[in-house]
Amino acid sequence: MSEGRSRDLIESQATEPAEKSEVHKKVQEYIGKRYEVQLTDGRFIRGTMIATDKDANMVFNKADERWTVKADRPVRFLGQAMISKKYVKKMCLLPDPKETEI
Predict the structure, then answer these.
(1) In this structure, are residues 75 and 64 in contact, taking their beta carbons and an 8 Å threshold?
(2) In the chain, helix, strand, coil percent, each to 5?
(3) Backbone φ, ψ for residue 75 (5° rounding)
(4) Any bridge partners for residue 44, and if so which?
(5) Where is this region: Disordered (predicted)?
(6) What pTM was computed for the model?
């Protein structure tokens, strides 16, 4: 190449976004909502679902772990948690937390 001239090695392509399938749209409805997931070993994980993959593994944000559903028992904060579908026994949608007034 001559000095002063550069060549873009990656050409931009005009691509239109693909139409989302009905399954994809349905899965998108689950993202951003809070769930309580009961695992096969007896634990309960609560958190906001932020991602899933083609194998139905799920990632939760602001997740916590407990060994019982009772609120008076100790809770361990996890942050983000990935749960494989093979360990899910039951999954329940939690109500949206009430907004606090200032």
Answers:
(1) yes
(2) 10, 35, 55
(3) -125, 140
(4) 38, 66
(5) 1-22
(6) 0.67
Residue among 19, 66, 16, 22 nearest 41 (CA): 66
Tokens 């019982």 correspond to what residue? 68
Spatial CA neighbour of 30 closest among 14, 3, 51, 61: 51
- In degrees, to the nearest 5, what angle opens at C-alpha 90 toward C-alphas 62 and 81? 25
Q: Which residues contact 86 (CB under 8 A, 6 or more apart)?
A: 40
pLDDT tens for each residue of 21-77: 776 777 778 889 999 999 999 999 999 999 988 888 899 999 999 987 776 778 899
Q: Give CA–CA dist 65/41, Å, rounded.
A: 12
Strand partners, 92: 36
Would you state the structure tokens that stand for residue 34, as one six-digit string?
């809070």
Question: How many whole angstroms separate alpha carbon 86 and alpha carbon 102?
Answer: 43
The third-level CATH classification (topology) of the domain covering 22-93 is SH3 type barrels. (2.30.30)
